[in-house]
Amino acid sequence: MRVACAALALTGVVSLSPSAAGGQTALTLADVLDRAREQAPAIVSARLALEEARGRLTGASLRLQSNPEIDVNVGSRQGADPRSTDLQLGAAQMFEPPGRRTARMAAAAAQLDHGLATAEDTTREVLRDAASWFYQALFAAERARLLDTSEELANAMLETADRRHRAGDLAVLDVNLARSSLARARSDREAAEAERAAALGALRALLRIEDTLAVRGSLAVGQSPDAAALARSAEQRPELRALEGAIREADAEISLARSLSKPSYGVGLRYEREDGDQIVLGGMTLTLPLFSKGQELQAVGSARGTRLRAELDAARTRVRIELQTALAAYERRVAAARVLESEALPGLDENDALTTRSFDVGQIGLPDVLLIRREILETRFQYLSALLEAALARVAVDAAAAVLR
Q1: What tens digit of pLDDT does each residue of 37-64 get?
Q2: How far apart (Å, rounded) are the C-alpha atoms in residues 316 and 312?
């Protein structure tokens, strides 16, 4: 009838059904993160979106942005002379001024860099969710195991109370109280199973796993993170690089706008046959940027660059604060778990044994037993919750430092 510390082993296999673990290999945290990188819909979509940016870069790299133009004119000449057919055949090609193609390619390349950083940031967010659901599934499983043991104890308590009632040692009130305690234990266990199913279901949806899912891992507190290394990693957060890419794109748009103030030119060749004469003409076309000189593009690009630089400065400050906050919260979460581990857990088994023995010999009543057992169970739950919060806090630290990528 004892709730041993072994119930809080904090490692094991969590599956959606009792037979799932035996029929398939359970996924560890590393397995979950690897599969999320490959199968998570948001990551797959972000990866495919990069092909669009690469397509724009391919288009921007073309040396000639316009196609050759060919025109053919055929007409009948009628007059005093005999009727004849005139023919005009021409070909022309427009060219850009120097620097426009370079600016256009720079803008497309910056847009691709922005897309790459955005895809990495999407990956970071998805991996944080995947790790969080992984730990919540482990927590739900450990909680369900504790409640299984609690139900067994409540059932044994009801049997003992019923036996002592038949012997005349306990009133029917105590039996009803034990029966109510057993019902609460069963209800709590069903609720824990629902939480476990929900956590595993969310993880299955994120990983695109239609079959039964099982996960294997531990909620135990790991080694303390290297704050200096995390700070260096945070400087490369994807959203910071996305803003940097957007700034380069805005600067490239300004260069492109300046190139619009330079004239474009084209060359052409025309062949004509008129009244029996054959004529070959060469020509040149020149666009004079007298009115439209890229003023709008330059003004928008300049304003956008100013805005993005302000956003980048604010984002760098926010990232530093976010990492500092996550580290401070993690340290406190670990401290909370350590206090319970060192000061509360060691005496629980002894209290449980003493309570059982005292009730068996009639030294304490059933209400006192139920109260003590409830306190023991809540302490174990609090420790388990503290471990979960510490694990989630570590996930937040790794996400803030862009370790999850």
Answers
A1: 998 999 888 888 888 888 888 888 888 8
A2: 6
